[in-house]
Amino acid sequence: xxxxxxxxxxxxxxxxxxxxxxxxxxxxxxxxxxxxxxxxxxxxxxxxxxxxxxxxxxxxxxxxxxxxxxxxxxxxxxxxxxxxxxxxxxxxxxxxxxxxxxxxxxxxxxxxxxxxxxxxxxxxxxxxxxxxxxxxxxxxxxxxxxxxxxxxxxxxxxxxxxxxxxxxxxxxxxxxxxxxxxxxxxxxxxxxxxxxxxxxxxxxxxxxxxxxxxxxxxxxxxxxxxxxxxxxxxxxxxxxxxxxxxxxxxxxxxxxxxxxxxxxxxxxxxxxxxxxxxxxxxxxxxxxxxxxxxxxxxxxxxxxxxxxxxxxxxxxxx
Length: 318
Fold this sequence. Notes:
Blueprint: E1 2-4, E2 16-20, H1 28-44, E3 47-54, H2 57-61, H3 73-82, E4 87-92, H4 95-99, H5 102-113, E5 116-121, H6 135-145, E6 148-151, E7 156-157, E8 160-161, H7 164-172, H8 176-183, E9 187-192, H9 199-202, E10 208-212, E11 221-228, E12 235-242, E13 253-258, E14 270-280, H10 288-307
Parallel strand pairs: 1-4, 2-3, 2-5, 3-4, 5-6
Antiparallel strand pairs: 7-8, 9-14, 10-13, 11-12, 11-14, 12-13
Helix pairs in contact: 5-6, 7-8
């Protein structure tokens, strides 16, 4: 998988088949789209490509806006790769990008930088300054510039349209099974374990800390999870996703994971935390003693849930 953060003209001499979007969570609808892009790319000897913007345009135009993200960029890229996408182009969304007219965006970005030959977007796609460009204009520009624009078919689950928005709402409500059903794959957070303040160790709950990039997370609270990457088989654990309101004032989203009866050093390791269930919302406690009592209850509930369910991510030999 090739990651390109600042494409330059003529970078893609071979030509690309691409789709443009945020693709938060990479749900079942996204996966179907990526398969179509890959199939068309192989038939035309093009490179199957995903184009995404960073930061999200809503965050760029409104510094106070916080997108409740389903997944991190790392995890989105992992899912894209699994669908056959060969490269991801992360376009910096800045003043220059925001000022481009639809015609200038097509010429400078889609043609000069990406050498697009086949493009897939939804019929509600907007592009260019003040969102002036739409699907009809992109199709017309494709006719005049020699690229083909394809419409996306809607993907449904249980009679409802699958979208990142619907998954986001399910996670905010703590409905992990509904969210994972729409995703079409387990909800996973991956990254390298970092050092924390080690407060959990003094309380009898040593945790592994994973920083979650972004300003907000759709899923917060106490979670029953499987930990992949420490031992050959996944380990049952309880985790907390949030900003730790009882012990500090911070906007940094942290995923703290406690594996009962496990001792070892996970610092620097790349772990995958697979979420099974949401136990309760994040909350503020009046004292550390009260928090510890609740942590024992949370751990007991998480272990019972995990004992009754197997991890969805396969591990050979487990």
